[in-house]
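User: I need a structural model of Citrate transporter from Acetonema longum DSM 6540 for a docking pre-check later this week. Nothing fancy, just the predicted structure tokens so I can convert them on my end. Input:
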Amino acid sequence: MNIIAVIGLILAVAVLIVGAYRGLGALPLTLLASLVVIVTNGIPLWDGYAASYMTGYTGAYLSPAFRQLQSVC
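Assistant: Understood. Predicted structure tokens for Citrate transporter:
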């Protein structure tokens, strides 16, 4: 892992923190933070969003714990 990739990860966390502090929603924040990581790590844009981002994002909503929480509410 090169230094630019590490700086990109730290910058993405900073984007999440600042955006959450300002009251932005989770979806735009995660899209922006993932864009920072994709660009600084040299990942192709479509592969970064389609393969990595969306599988993780939808996996959170398809998990058994989330479905259990939905049935309680």
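Before docking, keep this in mind: The two ends are 43 Å apart (CA to CA).
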